[in-house]
Design a protein that fits this description.
This protein is of the alpha+beta class. The protein is about 30% helix and about 25% strand. It contains 15 helices and 22 strands.
Length: about 625
């Protein structure tokens, strides 16, 4: 086969290259014929260059050979083209193309490979359905949009390694086949051929191994780690995903937060040329829930929630009064069981200038609140004048006696919409109204960039998480994050007496309403670890069986340590302006954890099952 190896890429030629003879390799992106002259847009991952096939200046035999090849060309034929670079005529310069001031006058074209009819056109923004794009992912990846997102991911990973290595971290790989340990989600299990009936697990994270590396004396570790969780897929979740795994010894929370801020600053400057603030906003978990109804608040817009309960007693809306009374009753009953509850809550959102919202629009907001277990969504509109504002519509008739106090206390103005959620469980009221807040942020365009500005990136640290949460179904305490997080010092003496009040040295990094990273200071003391296991209902025998290789290591001078793990997929997704991590993963699964391209998962052969000593139980 004749080889015409490229001398230039399809994205590098400019006016200064005029007169050069070049060879380009790539795919036919578009072909246009105009009065005997053909124009071919040739594409590779670097860009697009226009090839011109023109008989002027060519002898008959040469033109006939070139013309025959050109006539055969179709979209996505893989070709090589040789020709001379020339400037385009003044009126034909394309300012939207980096190579738009030149074209290549072809003298020879070689078809390297033909393409069958495409299942969809390869454009920057394909209109093909997701299932078709995933089935033919190798074609989808040819688009400039996908090429740019994969490039962005590559540059981000390089920036991570660049920063972490400069900070004295070692990149160390941890095993992919490990022991199954409970970490919240189901494990993917791998049967062992050599040990029938026994299984490896794919790691949900390198959590235990990175702690062992700290015991081993590698005080600064990182890894761009593959992780696996057998859970339902969604926009920012896949069965297999990638995280920037980090662990440090002889450290505290502040050190890790500062290091992570430096890492993010380096990535955004290096990859997007964007400057981030040196220090990110910080909120406690309690503040985040009370103000925004979420432990991953989107701070690209304000719209904080407010406490409406001071206005309930003077009003006559019984549903609000019942929520508070029932909350107090459940709180008192829980105390008898040694469990703390926050009681009921009535929370309000003042939405500036949205008194124009129709009943239908408010019903849509109510439907969103009900998804998060709210019983309903009350509303009132502020009308009148600045001097004499009044409440109208919705539940306003129940608050005529204290309307002026409500308007003044909430800081509402004429033209504003007041939305109110109430529940006997404070967390339910907060979460439901927080979901309404998020929907308003999208519906009202509050998260969009301001005119003339680029994408907005709002980071916030959420700190001081509860260490334990009460599992009502199993009637026991369980770790809110994982079992290896350090309880803050002031709670050590009373761990067993009041687990619900214990705060952990836990921290999440949130970006634009998406949980980007989660981490904690770890327990390095084996006796303290036993106490945590005991509170979570794990007896000594089970703890030894599941975690003995870690807790035994703590007996040999384990240093204080902690870490964090930003999600690489989510980070690149937000940087690329996407809402699904599938858009920044080369070969993702669909929403049913299937790969449509290679049709996995697939059945094993009878021979494979026999070697693994497995029998498949058929569903009836």
């Amino acid at each position: 086969m004749e080889v015409m190896k490229r001398t230039s890429t399809c994205g590098e030629l400019r006016g200064i290259d005029e007169g050069k003879t070049v060879i380009l390799n790539g795919w036919v992106h578009r072909k246009r014929d105009h009065g005997g002259i053909s124009f071919i847009n040739l594409r590779d991952r670097y860009g697009i260059t226009q090839i011109v096939v023109d008989p002027e200046g060519m002898d008959t035999d040469e033109w006939e050979r070139l013309s025959l090849v050109t006539q055969e060309l179709r979209n996505e034929f893989c070709i090589a083209a040789e020709g001379r670079v020339r400037r385009r005529p003044g009126g034909m310069v394309n300012p939207d193309m980096p190579t738009g001031e030149i074209e290549v006058l072809a003298r020879k074209i070689l078809i390297l490979n033909r393409s069958e009819t495409l299942p969809f056109q390869i454009d920057d923004e394909s209109e093909a359905k997701e299932e078709l794009r995933l089935k033919y992912r190798y074609l989808d990846l040819r688009s400039a949009s996908m090429q740019n997102k994969i490039r962005l991911r590559s540059e981000t990973a390089f920036a991570v390694r660049e920063y972490m290595t400069a900070q004295g971290f070692y990149e160390i790989e941890t095993p992919t086949f490990i022991r199954s340990t409970p970490e919240g989600a189901r494990d993917y299990l791998v049967p062992s051929r050599l040990y029938p009936g026994q299984f490896y697990a794919l790691p949900q994270s390198p959590q235990l191994y990175k702690q062992l590396l700290m015991v081993s004396g590698f005080d600064r570790y990182f890894q761009i780690a593959r992780c696996y969780r057998d859970e339902d897929a969604r926009g920012d979740r896949q069965p297999e995903f990638t995280q920037i795994d980090i662990e440090m010894s002889f450290t505290g929370r502040e050190d890790i937060l500062v290091m992570t801020e430096g890492l993010m600053g380096h990535i955004f400057k290096k990859v997007l040329n964007r400057d981030l603030p040196a220090c990110f906003t910080r909120l406690s978990y309690a503040q985040a829930m009370e103000l925004y109804g979420s432990d991953k608040p989107d701070l690209r817009f304000s719209l904080p929630m407010q406490d409406f309960s001071p206005y309930v007693e003077a009003g006559s809306f019984q549903a609000f009064k019942d929520a508070l009374a029932q909350g107090e009753a459940e709180k008192a009953e829980a105390i008898t069981k040694g469990v703390r509850l926050a009681g009921g809550a009535v929370k309000a959102l003042v939405v500036p200038g949205q008194a124009v919202y129709s009943r239908k629009q408010i019903e849509e907001l109510e439907a969103q609140a009900k998804v998060y277990k709210a019983k309903g969504l009350a509303w009132m509109k502020v009308n009148g004048t600045e001097e004499a504002p009044v409440l109208e519509g919705g539940v306003s008739k129940f608050f005529t006696a204290n309307a002026a106090e409500i308007i003044r206390g909430l800081g509402a103005k004429p033209g504003d919409l007041i939305l109110i959620a109430a529940d006997a469980r404070r967390k339910t009221a907060n979460t439901a109204l927080g979901a309404v807040r998020s929907k308003l942020g999208r519906d009202l365009g509050l998260i969009l960039p301001k005119d003339g500005e680029g994408p907005r990136f709002e980071f916030v640290w959420i700190v001081d998480f509860p260490l334990f949460e009460w599992n009502e179904e199993e009637n026991r305490w369980e770790a809110a994050h994982h079992l290896f997080s350090w309880p803050q010092e002031q709670f050590h003496a009373t761990l067993e007496q009041d687990p619900g009040s214990v705060l952990g040295d836990l921290y999440d990094l949130v970006l634009n309403g998406c949980e980007l990273a989660s981490g904690s200071i770890r327990i390095h003391d084996s006796e303290l670890q036993k106490r945590i296991f005991s509170i979570a209902g794990i007896n000594a025998e089970d703890a030894e069986k599941k975690f003995g290789f870690l807790t035994n290591a703590f007996k040999f001078g384990a240093p204080p340590h902690g870490g964090i793990a930003p999600g690489l997929d989510r980070l690149v997704m937000i940087m690329a302006g996407e809402t699904s991590i599938k858009e920044v993963i080369a070969f993702p699964k669909n929403s049913f954890a299937q790969s449509l391209m290679d049709e996995s998962p697939s059945e094993a052969t009878a021979k494979q099952l026999e070697e693994l000593h497995l029998i498949i139980k058929k569903e009836k």
